[in-house]
């Protein structure tokens, strides 16, 4: 899977795994094959719901397509992930306190030219550095959509990967490409559906993907674990537009309850 990443990045993968064993901080990487499926909305709201359960959370916005997290948290970041990677600021300076208690954000930057810098820097190093602080309970990494080398870097260092998808055929095709890649050297992928009417639909589609993986003889030891769905909700799109978190504004909304159920399962599965 990661043949193409540098030796430097491979060393980082091992180092990050050791750090995770030593630190209280759990790493969860949230990804999607296709763009626009709700990955950033999930990341921001999972962060809030975890913080409301008493966890201290850091979010790393590793999306260089559209760095949405600062919009969702209504922030104008002074520094971004890339200022840290380029050595301009310290880890404390790049971890920005959000308006929500116990949530810090490392902001991303839209349109960063990864390929111009990919030989000089290992971007995922920031995750290892946050884990080493031993200050947060959870680090959530929001990767960009797709499977480019930059996204692969952040997937490579994580044993806890959550994919967000819709039931749209193109989203499912991209998801299967992700499953195929991860099955080579990961143990599991957690999967949740956005914009689906009920839990059963997600379950049925997950089972079809698992059967397809079996038919295509993907690694038997790799598990796809369906952990829940969120329905389409006007409250989600409205709060997103207003730069607010739906789970904070609408604590008793069905979609908040659906996301709470996802977090219950997530916490049981996270390593
Ligand atoms: N369940 C939902 N119901 C209604 N609107 C939603 C839902 N989930 C997400 N949205 C809206 O869909 C839009 C896209 O969501 P979001 O930005 O989270 O997607 P993304 O996968 O992170 O996109 P990108 O690939 O651009 O980073 C946003 O306007 C968001 O408010």
TrEMBL record:
One of its GO terms (cellular component) is cytosol. It holds the Pfam family AAA_31. Residues 26-188 form the AAA domain. Keywords: ATP-binding, Cell projection, Cilium, Flagellum, Nucleotide-binding. GO terms for molecular function: ATP binding; ATP hydrolysis activity. SUPFAM superfamilies: P-loop containing nucleoside triphosphate hydrolases (SSF52540). ATP binds at residues 34-41. Gene3D superfamilies: P-loop containing nucleotide triphosphate hydrolases. This is ATP-binding protein.
